Amino acid sequence: xxxxxxxxxxxxxxLPSILxxxxxxxxxxxxxxxxxxxxEIATMAIFFAMLWDALDGRVARMTNTQTAFGAEYxxxxxxxxxxxxxxxxxxxxxxxxxxxxxxxxxxxxxACAALRLARFNTQVGIxxxxxxxxxxxxxAAAVLAGMIGLYEWLPGQxxxxxxxxxxxxxxxxxxxxxxxILMVSNVRYHSFKEVxxxxxxxxxxxxxxxxxxxxIAYEPPxxxxxxxxxxxxxxxxxxxxxxxxxxxxxxxxxSL
Length: 256
Prior knowledge:
The chain is an all-alpha fold. The chain is 77% helix and 2% strand.
């Protein structure tokens, strides 16, 4: 009886681990596609990795199958899918011609993603669940992948907008570095974990969700990039707004 209990403790829950493995495979495939120059496929693989990453955690919580092993495995998969894969993608896409400056930017992004995930693991159960400290690595990966996917989707591969090869290098370099810095910053981002998907909601909310899906399906590259780019900007805006609110409260308290 005791031996069976020990074996059960040493085992892992299959369903969340399978979903995490699917996400890891998508991240690994994004690396292979990037090396081969298939940038559209690489961006799609990163977005699919985001889908599996969202599912494995939610399934683990709903089925009460959360384990320390699952959390560590998920972090390692995230490092590949949202750290290494986007760094290689943006490097292969436009940074190869910049020499050392190019691969340094890609490394900064990958290193910041690793630091972001390590910090997140140490703050589990301590930090405010309503907010993320720093830009989440999946969102940062979505910004880079969305930018590249949008460029590849545009007619004439962006040249109709007047983008030259030099401007591509600058944009890619800046986005990689900015996303990396935001991941390790103290800027707060909404986590949306307070949203209750189990409870009852109005019919309007369901209609809004259907409308969002229709808009994304109509122009996926454009809509996804705009959504995650605005989310990236929301953190600094929220931080500045909260600092202004604190300053106003201090002035009011001093005046009283």
